[in-house]
Specification:
Elements: E1 3-9, H1 11-15, H2 18-27, E2 33-39, H3 47-55, E3 60-63, H4 69-83, E4 88-92, E5 96-98, H5 102-110, E6 116-127, E7 132-139, E8 142-145, E9 150-152, E10 167-168, E11 176-180, H6 181-187, H7 217-227, E12 231-242, H8 253-259, H9 265-282, H10 289-309, H11 315-322, H12 324-333, H13 340-344, E13 347-348
Parallel strand pairs: 1-2, 1-4, 2-3, 6-12, 8-13
Antiparallel strand pairs: 4-11, 5-12, 6-7, 6-11, 8-9, 10-12
Protein name: Glycosyltransferase 2-like domain-containing protein
InterPro entries: Glyco_trans_2-like, Nucleotide-diphossugar_trans
GO molecular function, one term: glycosyltransferase activity
């Protein structure tokens, strides 16, 4: 099986999409594909499992027994795909629909260059309430600032023909990405000594960082792929539509602060903690003085904002302190196979 497709389900938050998502996904499949699902729902029998078993019995569905979060659930599916001899893994959110050539277009770009580690599709906004496709951009991959802030490229802008060129982007969004399993094995984290030989698809192998329950795992894995010399490429002919509840508007400090009003406390906690985990993993890398200064200054401003307006997030720093030994292990396993200036070419100022 050359290609695995995987997604996560969780209670009513995903079940409402399945009658749109799965027929659309199946219509985009033109080759032999294995579809796997990890159900993070609280109960084994739920709206997701009932719909999948009744309508798509060929899909391999496993109940996690608890909510594993994003990283652990996807790592389970990725390990399985590797052990089954797959070459690629397509990670998807179920709140999406696709054009018929979606998978074919992504695979075609992936196979154009053996150094491509991930392919990002063009994702436009899906108006789920009215079941309407729009021309508003949801994501054209991830972009990165010199302050180490991550954004979905061109989010909120109207689509236009000038955005239909295959090109490199800094990273991929976890909503939809075709992952080269050879690249994932190359940058995987394993608990054992870095001098020990790699264990292909081993149970302790982490592709997405399992210190991150949810949010920023895509930023982290994109970064690790880039540091190890792998490319991440946008395939604009691979078109998907995503029902993102709240899209970010603007990138200035004020606009970011205003956008935060729409985020739940839990999402803010995950995002805040995981951003710091990522930064601590990168702290010893030889970034230019300008990048170090911009990153440090932004974190000072961020902590000041949190102290004044979101003090509940300061408790996450206690968790961060306790995670220091695990973060250190991961930092020691990070590779730098490129000149850091090559990575900084993807960074921009706001």
């Amino acid at each position: 099986m050359r290609l695995y497709v995987g997604f996560i389900t969780y209670g009513k938050s995903t079940s409402k999409y399945l009658s749109y998502f799965l027929p659309s996904l199946k219509a985009s499949i033109s080759q032999e594909v294995k579809i796997v699902v990890v159900d993070n729902s609280d109960e084994e029998v739920n709206e997701n499992s009932i719909y999948i078993k009744n309508n798509f019995p060929e899909i391999d569905l496993s109940w996690a027994g608890k909510n594993l979060g994003f990283a652990k659930a996807f790592n389970k599916m990725i390990r399985r795909s590797i052990n089954d001899g797959a070459r690629y893994f397509l990670a998807l959110n179920p709140d999406m629909i696709f054009e018929p050539n979606f998978i074919e277009a992504m695979v075609r770009v992936m196979e154009s260059d053996k150094k491509i580690g991930a392919v990002a599709p063009k994702i436009l906004k899906w108006d789920f309430t009215n079941n309407r496709k729009t021309d508003q951009i949801d994501s054209l991959g991830l972009s990165l600032t010199r302050e180490h802030r991550f954004f979905d490229e061109h989010q909120g802008e109207p689509d236009n023909p000038g955005l239909n060129t295959v090109h490199e982007v800094f990273g991929f969004t976890g909503a939809a990405a075709l992952l080269n399993l050879a690249a994932l094995e190359d940058v995987a984290y394993q608990e054992k000594s870095p001098l020990a030989p790699p264990c292909r698809g081993g149970e302790s192998t982490e592709y997405f960082d399992e210190l991150m329950f949810m949010y920023k795992e895509d930023c982290d894995l994109s970064y690790r792929l880039r540091l190890a010399g792998w490319k991440i490429v946008l395939a604009p002919q691979a078109l998907a539509y995503h029902n993102r509840a709240v899209a970010a508007k603007g990138k200035t400090n004020l606009q970011i602060a205003l956008n935060r009003r729409h985020k739940s406390r839990l999402v803010k906690k995950w995002s805040f903690l995981n951003q710091w985990i990522l930064l601590l993993k990168l702290k010893n890398f030889p970034f230019s003085f300008g990048v170090k200064l911009a990153t440090g200054w932004y974190q000072i401003k961020s902590l000041l904002f949190v102290s004044l307006f979101e003090p509940f997030l300061l408790k996450e720093l206690v968790k961060l302190w306790r995670l220091r030994p695990e973060i250190k292990k991961r930092r020691e396993r990070l590779r730098l196979d490129i000149e850091i200036k090559e990575l900084e070419k993807f960074m921009y100022d706001i």
